[in-house]
Design a protein that fits this description.
By secondary structure, this protein is α/β, with parallel strands linked by helices. Helices cover 38% and strands 16% of the residues. The protein is built from twelve helices and twelve strands. Helix 2 packs across helix 3 and helix 6 runs parallel beside helix 7. The protein is globular, with a radius of gyration of 18 Å. InterPro entries: AKR2_Oxidoreductase, NAD(P)_OxRdtase_dom_sf, NADP_OxRdtase_dom.
Length: 323
């Protein structure tokens, strides 16, 4: 059980992964969900949607699948999909611990998830993850680390992460917030047997919020695989919500703005995997067009002009509703 068996060259689409946050629970922070999901977001309806997406992703060449304890029943849906397709042995599975899902399958809940990076939460959630995914769990990541996270300093947590490494399970972290770069660099300082403790780092990076770029390049240089999340800024870089320049560039390339937004990230030499958070097969197909899209230097330069200050980006993100 190790992320190290992932090959970005396995298929043309292998550098795009599928994240299950948008279909593992009825509520999520993403624009356009009323049109994306069935009106009746039952467990069975989202299980069926998750399996449709997983089938389509695998058929298209996607080989990294990303979930988390806090994504409602996403781990369960993924585990069922894997059990029903025993011949599918070429995918790499990553999950995350540190947030507990608390919405009780409601999209209008006051609180959807609660963050806790204690050793006790690790123990509980790792047991829950492995009860579902068993030996298919290749990568276990700390969810949404910030510079203040005790997960980077608590000896009990670090002992457990080292124990996973010793057992052959790779460990990683995801980051969030305007100080992602600081969190990444703090994580790079943690060691295991002479090398970095973490095998991967998963961070928000897109044309609106590129502030973690230099730190992600440092992580790549240190041997970590960089996984990019929120490449479409929770839907703000897709469809009609995309900035005019993004839509204009997409029109010239004959794709959607979502593909251009993801391709702009894939052009970064340090980007290992860029996640699609598609909620429909049509969205997934549009996202996967990024794998074959080569943007010219002028268009890449124009897209860099869309960047906003990190504090502003994260304030605007936090104001987006769960829907």
């Amino acid at each position: 059980m190790a992320f190290s068996r992932f090959s970005p060259d396995a298929t043309p689409a292998a550098r795009i992964g599928l994240g299950l946050a948008a279909v593992g629970r009825p509520g999520y922070i993403n624009l356009g969900r009323a049109a994306d999901l069935p009106a009746d977001r039952t467990v069975d309806a989202l299980r069926e949607r998750s399996h449709q997406l997983l089938d389509a992703a695998h058929a298209a060449g996607v080989r990294y699948l990303d979930t988390a304890r806090s994504y409602g029943r996403a781990e369960e849906f993924l585990a069922e999909w894997l059990r029903e397709r025993p011949a599918v042995r070429d995918v790499v599975v990553g999950s995350k611990w540190g947030y507990t899902y608390t919405a009780d399958w409601r999209s209008d809940a006051d609180t959807h998830e609660v963050k806790d990076h204690s050793a006790a939460t690790f123990d509980r959630q790792y047991a829950e993850s492995t009860a579902l995914l068993g030996d298919r769990l290749d990568l276990y990541q700390i969810h949404s680390v910030t510079p203040q996270s005790p997960a980077l300093t608590d000896p009990a947590v670090l002992e457990r992460l080292a124990g996973l490494r010793a057992a052959g399970v790779d460990v990683g972290l995801s980051t969030s917030g305007p100080a992602q770069a600081e969190a990444i660099r703090a994580a790079l300082a943690l060691r295991y047997e002479g090398g970095p403790l973490f095998r991967t780092v998963q961070s928000t990076f897109n044309v609106l919020e590129p502030s973690a770029g230099e730190a992600l390049a440092e992580a790549h240089a240190a041997g970590l695989t960089v996984i990019v999340k929120e490449g479409m800024a929770n839907g703000r870089l897709a469809g009609a919500a995309a900035p005019p320049v993004l839509r204009e560039i997409a029109g010239r390339y004959g794709t959607g703005p979502d593909a251009v937004a993801l391709a702009a990230v894939l052009h970064r030499p340090w980007a290992g995997i860029v996640l699609s958070g598609a909620a429909t097969v049509a969205q997934l197909t549009g996202n996967l067009a990024a794998a074959g899209l080569r943007l010219d230097s002028r268009d890449l330069a124009r897209l860099t002009e869309l960047a906003v200050p990190a504090q502003r980006y994260w304030a605007e993100r936090s104001a987006l509703p769960w829907s």
